[in-house]
Structures are given as C-alpha cells and as structure tokens.
Amino acid sequence: MTVNELKTAFKEALQPLGFLRKGNSWYDTSEEVIVVVNLQKSNYSNTVYLNLGFWLQKLEVSEYPPVHQCHIQTRACSLWPEGTPRPEEGPPRIADLFELEDYPCDDDRRLTLIKEWISLKLVPTLKSAMTVSGLQNLVTQHEGMGVMRIARETLGLD
Predict the structure, then answer these.
(1) What is the chain written as a DSSP string?
(2) Cα-atom radius of gyration of the chain, to the nearest Å?
(3) What gap in Å lies between CA 110 and CA 6, rounded to an integer?
(4) Which tens digit of pLDDT belongs to each residue from 132-151?
(5) Longest distance between any two alpha carbons in the chain, whole Å
(6) Are 100 and 48 in contact (CB under 8 A)?
(7) For 104-124, what is each residue's pLDDT tens digit?
(8) 24 near 77, Cβ under 8 Å?
(9) Which residues pair with 3 in a beta bridge?
C-alpha cells in the first residue's frame, strides 16, 4: 500500500461528509471549532501518523490552521490505543495499520479496516467535538491530549 492510496481512502471517506482537503489535511468547520485531520509520513520509515487538531474559533479566527498550531492536538493512536499488539491474533491497533510496510496485512484488508475505523470511530468522535462542550468532553476523557493553556482556560479545565 502507498501513502497516496491512504490519502485516497481518507478523501473518499471524509469529503462526502463536508471535510475540505488542503494538502495533507482535511478540515471540518463549525462556528465554534475547526477540526483538522492530518496525514504525516515518517521521514524514517513507511509509517504514516494521523494527527488530529482542534482550533477554537473564539480564540482566533483561521480558515485552515496547520495541525501543529491547533489549540488542542493529539495523534489518533493516542485516542484509540485498543486492539491487539502484533503479532498476536485479533483486530490490529490503528497504529499498526498505518505502518504500511512493517505491519503484515493484505492491502485490501488494510484499506477496509481503515475505512471502517474512519466511519465508525474517527468521524463520530470528530463530529462530537465540533462544539466547545463536545470538545471539552473529549479532552476530559483523554488526558494525554496536548492542550494549550489558553484552550484549557476557554474549556474551563483549569
């Protein structure tokens, strides 16, 4: 599987739901929050990282904020660590599916699993975080997210 095939899978899954693509990122915007989904290819292997960013519109208006500048950031593998560590039998972790060469998996199966994960887990989570209260719930449930101090204050987390 190639990175371009992975990008195509994300495009096919996210574009019909209103996400706009710019470079390697997809954006969904509400009056309160911009959600950013970013694919980042590793410089050292054929691994792809799925970065997630959340931009609070009340702090600053931006049409397409880069994921690394978002007020709240995380990687998908931090939000969804579940699955079976390889090489055990069972459903793979999302992080393993994004290791395009090192994780042994038929390309068609890999794409099917990634597309299912996008529709069943990623999109519902992102859509629920399109409001300040929804984003507050997400951050409260996942303590490992990177949250700027100003965002913590805005979300009432301090």
Answers:
(1) --HHHHHHHHHHHHGGGT-EEETTEEEEE-SSEEEEEEEEE-SSSSBEEEEEEEEETTT---SS--GGGSSEEEEHHHH---SBPTTSSSPBPHHHHTBTTTS---HHHHHHHHHHHIIIIIHHHHHHTSSHHHHHHHHHH-TTSEE-HHHHHHTT--
(2) 16
(3) 10
(4) 999 999 999 998 899 999 99
(5) 46
(6) yes
(7) 888 899 999 999 999 999 999
(8) no
(9) none
